[in-house]
Amino acid sequence: MGSVTAVLNQKGGVGKxxxxxxxxxxxxxxxxxxxxxxxxxxxSAGWAMGVEADDEHLAVGDVLRTGxxxxxxxxxxxxxxxxxxxxxxxxxxxxxxxxxGHSDATALRLRRALEPLTAQYRHILIDCAPSLGPTTxxxxxxxxxxxxxxxxxxxxxxxxDAVMDTIxxxxxxxNPHLDVFGVVVNRAPASSTEAEHQAEELTxxxxxxxxxxxxxxxxxxxxxxxxxxxxxxxxxxxxxxTVATFDRLYRHLNRVTNASSAATDATxxxxxxxxxxxxxxxxxxxxxxEWAHPPMRWVSPFRMPSVGAGVSPGSRPRSPS
Length: 321
Ligand SMILES: Nc1ncnc2c1ncn2[C@@H]1O[C@H](COP(=O)(O)OP(=O)(O)OP(=O)(O)O)[C@@H](O)[C@H]1O
Ligand SMILES: [Mg+2]
Description:
The longest helix is centred in the C-terminal third of the chain and has 31 residues, at about 240-270. This protein is about 40% helix and about 10% strand. Helix 3 (about 60-65) packs antiparallel against helix 4. It is of the alpha/beta class. It has one domain: Rossmann fold, CATH 3.40.50. It has helices at about 15-30, 45-50, 60-65, 70-75, 95, 105, 110-115, 135-140, 155-175, 195-205, 220-230, 240-270, and strands at about 5-10, 35-40, 75-80, 85-90, 125-130, 145-150, 180-185. The protein contains 12 helices and 7 strands. Bound molecules: adenosine-5'-triphosphate and magnesium ion. Magnesium ion binds next to helix 1. Magnesium ion (MG) binds near residues 16, 17, 40, 44 and 127.
């Protein structure tokens, strides 16, 4: 059973898509099957993986509209990166889903649709739009955990706090088992007093174990990979150091998600209600809000049998007109 990870920050341009792509490339190189859900109407992640966002074919907007696992499966395509990496593409109509409102039923549709697909992938990575609106709330409702991507600027570190408030809001209502998998620092400068200060602030705020190492440095090879619509790992020697960074981050993702599912299994087995025993939930000493009640295990009423694999990019099923 794979893990669902929402890659997010409401701040634009911090590297959410870059980190999701780097992790997907590392998963592919490790031989692990991965699905990237492009939950951003910009469609950048899908594009970088060789899949165009359009309104002609079934896409993630149709999944959010219907909550159907069959639609999710039909919309999923093999990426241009080759076998083992699939994409649930974005579409411009995804913007309409932002107008669907904040109801819990709406937010749960993505979870319902993705649940059967988790059996087919080691990881499902959701690349979120730079917002905390309804589509990102859907991602948080669907995810086992979230990965916050930040830069070491005062504004980005400050924004991390607003994301955490939203998570606690959603966590207590929709998805009590949502974990904070961690924080990935992107575009870390080689050395800067201000960046070091912000790194300390982030660690103080989020807890030492929550901030993943290594940091992702500023590297043009990451832009090149997007321009070529190829996995970073295909760029040869000049990408070697950056590949090593993402391979380490990917191993960390595996450790964290393994711990998360083991804790969930243990919680299921004992019917325990105290989620603070989960070892990987970062300790956040300065939070204003603590869990008001011990979280209960959320059991989906929508569990459905597993369905077949997606279709190839050349034969994407059309959206109903
Ligand atoms: N570590 C890095 N080194 C060099 N370029 C980077 C790095 N991280 C991101 N970029 C570049 O910065 C730009 C923004 O990155 P990206 O699209 O990943 O951010 P985002 O948070 O997903 O943006 P949005 O909020 O619009 O979805 C892209 O051109 C990307 O290639
Ligand atoms: Mg993006």
